[in-house]
Design a protein that fits this description.
Blueprint (H helix, E strand, L loop, with lengths): L7 H27 L9 H6 L1 H22 L1 H6 L1 H25 L7 H26 L3 H15 L1 H16 L2 H11 L2 H14 L13
Protein name: DUF2306 domain-containing protein
Pfam families: DUF2306
InterPro entries: DUF2306_membrane
Length: about 220
């Protein structure tokens, strides 16, 4: 099986994304480890009403974010199929459990139904794309598995884009509430669109290791 090749700029972007993913993963892991003192000021009251759901969502989300990035590394996929398979199981379990907790929490968003709907859809799509990827690999449909997992990780990566976008939106609006309503959609919709664009653009030219033709 041929190894995937990335350009120098591609590896640079991959490294930057990795640093962001691992940094946010470590930040999210503070919630179940440290507890309420780690809760963000603007969301503290809401989080305190459902602390265990927050711990599940943040803890498993941190695992999915970190492990998922490792899974995307073509060198690791090529080097050890066994490691890739076990990490994949950890990723799928974490993504689905984190998504389930996120779906439970979404209706309780203090900023109203717009944010609740955005985060709720993010949770549902995360679980669906991850489950589709799992079903595909169990059926030995490797190309479909990789495409679904790219979509799944694009949604998991919303944890990173949210933390980049939210401070900028708060500065733009001067208020947390409208910023949070917007970021509930902005943190994941562009990610998913970018994943679909990449799959359609690169699918016909990708070596089989990266997923074959796009769906």
């Amino acid at each position: 099986m041929p190894r995937a090749r990335l350009s120098r700029s591609g590896w640079a972007g991959f490294a930057i994304a990795g640093l962001l993913a691992l940094g946010v993963s470590a930040y999210a892991a503070r919630y179940p480890i440290v507890g309420p003192p780690a809760f963000a000021a603007g969301l503290r009251d809401s989080f305190l009403r459902h602390p265990w759901a927050i711990y599940v969502h943040a803890g498993f989300g941190a695992v999915a974010l970190g492990v998922g990035f490792i899974q995307l590394n073509p060198a690791i996929r090529s080097a050890s199929y066994g490691l890739h398979r076990w990490l994949g199981r950890a990723y799928a379990t974490a993504a689905i459990l984190g998504g389930a907790a996120g779906l439970y929490l979404a209706p309780y968003a203090d900023t109203g139904p717009i944010a609740a709907t955005g985060f709720g859809l993010l949770a549902v799509l995360t679980m669906l794309t991850t489950a589709a990827g799992w079903i595909a690999i169990r059926s030995r449909r490797v190309a479909a598995h990789r495409r679904w997992m790219i979509r799944s990780y694009a949604l998991i990566f919303a944890a990173v884009t949210l933390r980049i976008e939210l401070p900028l939106l708060i500065m733009a609006f001067g208020d947390f509430v409208p910023a949070y309503r917007i970021v509930a959609w902005l943190c994941w919709v562009p990610n998913l669109l970018a994943a679909e664009w990449w799959l359609r653009r690169a699918g016909a030219r990708m070596p089989p290791e990266l997923g074959g033709a796009a769906a």
